[in-house]
Design goal:
The structure holds 2 protein chains of 2 kinds.
Chain A lengths: L9 E2 L13 E3 L3 E5 L3 E7 L9 E5 L2 E6 L10 E5 L4 E8 L10 E5 L2 E7 L15
Parallel strand pairs in A: 2-8
Antiparallel strand pairs in A: 1-8, 3-4, 4-10, 5-6, 6-8, 9-10
Chain B lengths: L1 H6 L3 H18 L12 E6 L2 E7 L8 E6 L2 E7 L10 E5 L5 E7 L10 E5 L2 E7 L15
Antiparallel strand pairs in B: 1-2, 2-8, 3-4, 4-6, 7-8
The chains are: A mainly beta, B alpha+beta.
Chain lengths: 133, 144
Amino acid sequence: MADKKTLQKREADKLEKVERTRDRKVFVPAVDIYETNDEIVLMAEMPGVDEKTIDVVLDNDVLTIRGQVASEIPEGYELVYSEYEVGDFERSFTINESIDVDKIEARYQNGVLNVRLPKAEPAKAKKIEVKVK
Amino acid sequence: MYLDKIWQLDPWRELDRIHDEMNRLFQDTFSRTPIRSYPAINLWVKDDGALVTAELPGYDVNDLDITVLNDELRIKGKRNMPKPDKDLKFHRLESDIDSFQRTIDLPFPVESDKVEAKLERGVLTIVLPRAEFDKPRKIQVSTK
């Protein structure tokens, strides 16, 4: 589990927000989060999302990712068997202050939104040289 | 017609499918992670062809292997995910599937050398033209 001192990542409580008017379901994307010495990387599976509609918003300490699916119904075909539904994606996280918010980067590739959250300097582990005499 | 074949499925398998669907229904409230059959597919049909779509986020074109034989479509995939080690630890791991193989029964035999597949934004679309010999033919009724 995460080391509580270094950082904590939990789902943000549902905030009061603007109601949607789009005729689509909204799904919570599956997310992987891993941490290295320098950064925290968040990978959200958002297949079919149109790159232009992706929003990554940091409001105070709440990071929200959002994306709208650009899918068209194949013309002339009839859906005869369905295991998944198409919808938009949205999910929020709280991040703590050990993140350097100015350097957050996001990239969308192969249906996965990749958000890199670099750690702020003081939080980085410092290597201390041991001098031998 | 293709519908005949769909209703002819093994009833146990059909029960399994309903079971999956129920699970999916409940799980949808929290996440979209599929439960058993991966990837989740949608099957579209018209008179002279079928179309299969599957959500495969995180897979590259080179990670996928698609084969067709008569009325069977097989999708295989394997992707590289970051591995945890001493400098990399996971806080959350919801997309834990990194390889899969799935065979899908199609409602009719297809022209295997005319199958086209594309992977766009993590969505795989496979167009499967119906085999020429299997296509429905309109028969003229002649009156005398």
